[in-house]
Amino acid sequence: MTFSLELSPDLTHVRDWVHEFAADVVRPAAAEWDEREETPWPIIQEAAKVGLYSMDLFAEQVAEPSGLGLIVVFEEMFWGDAGIALAILGTGLAAASLAANGTPEQVGEWVPQMFGSIDEPEVAAFCSSEPGAGSDVGAILTRARYDEATDEWVLNGTKTWATNGGIANVHVVVASVHPELGTRGQASFIIPPATPGLSQGQKFLKHGIRASHTAEVVLEDVRIPGRLIVGGKEKFDERIAKVREGKKAAGQAAMATFERTRPTVGAMAVGVARAAYEYARDYACEREQFGRKIGDFQGVAFKLADMKARVDAARLLVYRAAWMARNGKEFTSAEGSMAKLVASETAVYVTDEAIQILGGNGYTREYPVERMHRDAKIFTIFEGTSEIQRLVMGRAITGLPIR
Ligand SMILES: Cc1cc2nc3c(=O)[nH]c(=O)nc-3n(C[C@H](O)[C@H](O)[C@H](O)COP(=O)(O)OP(=O)(O)OC[C@H]3O[C@@H](n4cnc5c(N)ncnc54)[C@H](O)[C@@H]3O)c2cc1C
């Protein structure tokens, strides 16, 4: 049996191609879009033109046999800039939720609309969180009621912190159909473009990833065709019947999918951490104090050694989890959560140390590590906070119902 961490020639080519785009197009635009705090449509368009923002690229990289296809793309893009990268790749998270749980017809009809065309790219949003339901997904209040007479779902509620919320062409919304069943009574719904009743609420001004749009999504008597429940109504009804009979079913499937997409978020964090590490390393090899390069002081060199070690360790955990997910290996110690946890805390640590190495310069907006530091913090919060990752891991490794 062979063991290799070498990327295939095809994947190496993809990595270098994405890196070039990140270095030539994304990085130079990062400060401007961070300051403007707006969705960088011209850059999304540029990404669409070169084929980097496309359904085909996502499909190809998801299918990559090592499992590292999307991981490599995400690390390079977030190395360029986290805010712009999320504006470009945030659609991937909505698309992944549909790809994982949708019927083939739903995937075929809606994923292309999430991306739009080369001339008119679109974005998509995945809306789960609510003001009263962040970590506690079971507390979701948004309701979906089935109207037999018209074969339609009627949705009401308020979603919050939705990436691309309100500006998306397609929204995937998690709602409760049978509130008494908690997460097991929930389903996701596809809201087509320009559906009456869906509107954007408050747009949030943020600490970091400011080029990525985050907003409330308000649903008031939103009516959608019956077929737009993700996975289909028949399957949902069967699942609910099983739950009511007390059989093990449902809910857990969605959580398992989540666990499997977490390495991708880890890869984003690794990209930001690596960018800050590289910037600090180069700076330390240039800046002189006391007549020598500051990198020549052990106090600085040791920081760089720790930063590099932690970036590489985080990447290895991300690679392992992604490889396991792609190759059908069961996560026994919540390896997906582990990768996301370590990578996101690494990004916070490394960007903090990078500012320290740049001293006063690091604290100003003249240097990119200040932005990277603000950007890094989101990774310990979204897609499950660090505490929630520890909870998932704790349960997996002890078998106890830790709260
Ligand atoms: C920029 C941004 C983009 C986002 N994008 C999306 C998106 O596209 N779609 C979407 O649905 N959501 C999105 N979110 C929401 C995000 O997933 C939530 O913020 C996150 O899940 C945490 O929920 P919360 O903010 O309500 O925090 P809370 O759940 O209120 O948690 C507050 C604190 O309590 C801790 N805590 C909570 N429960 C426990 C527990 N059981 N044990 C220990 N500690 C606990 C948390 O770890 C945290 O430190 C986004 C958020 C942000 C900021």
From TrEMBL:
Residues 253-397 form the Acyl-CoA dehydrogenase/oxidase C-terminal domain. Coiled coil: none annotated. Its cofactor is FAD. PROSITE patterns: ACYL_COA_DH_2. Residues 10-114 form the Acyl-CoA dehydrogenase/oxidase N-terminal domain. The keyword Nucleus does not apply. Pfam families: Acyl-CoA_dh_1, Acyl-CoA_dh_M, Acyl-CoA_dh_N. Residues 125-222 form the Acyl-CoA oxidase/dehydrogenase middle domain. GO terms for molecular function: acyl-CoA dehydrogenase activity; flavin adenine dinucleotide binding. Keywords: FAD, Flavoprotein, Oxidoreductase. The keyword Oxidoreductase applies. PANTHER family: ACYL-COA DEHYDROGENASE, ISOVALERYL-COA DEHYDROGENASE, MITOCHONDRIAL-RELATED. Belongs to the acyl-CoA dehydrogenase family. This is Acyl-CoA dehydrogenase.
